[in-house]
User: What shape does this take?
Amino acid sequence: MMKWLLLVHVLGASVWVGGHLILLFTVVPRARKQQSIRPIMEFEESFSPLGLTSLALQVISGVWMALHYVSFSDWFDFSYSHQYYLWIKLSLLAATVAIAIRTKFSLLKQPTDQDLPAVVFHIALVTMLAVGFVVTGISFRYPF
Ligand code: HEM
Assistant: This one.
């Protein structure tokens, strides 16, 4: 079962992290050059359905795998590293969801080109959190 969960998790990570790295390093430079928010809106429109599906799969497969490492009754007793990695993952998730909600329901509600700097800042934040998920995820098997 762990193998299948890990397969789903790594595929989901490829979509979420890969999508945000492409957004930050190829779409954002184009938007800034054009001083237009349009390239980002077009990317968001096509990426969001797959991106949000992969995020949901990350949570389901991630928590399921985490229970393999840390039984629920031990989640609040920080006696070994896996419990720290688990709470780092949950904190990264809370921050990602908070920023995603703010971006989607306020910044991108009726975006103008003036919102470009704020939108780019939020994209950079979510991308850093995404990379944080990967580093923390690898730590479960190869503690830093
Ligand atoms: C967008 C969100 C996430 C991304 C991009 C992500 C990414 C990753 C990656 C790349 C790995 C390493 C896989 C490997 O070692 O081959 C991993 C492992 C892991 N992740 Fe996540 N993760 C995310 C969310 C979560 C969440 C929310 C949890 C649970 C609270 C979680 C729990 C785990 C666990 C337990 C492992 C260790 C699996 C193992 O190696 O046995 N992940 N994650």
About this structure: DSSP finds four helices and no strands in the chain. Residues 6, 9-10, 13, 16-17, 55, 58-59, 62-63, 65-66, 69, 86, 89-90, 93, 130, 133-134, 137-138, 140-141 surround protoporphyrin IX containing FE (CB under 6 Å). The longest helix spans residues 2-34. The chain has one domain: 2-141.
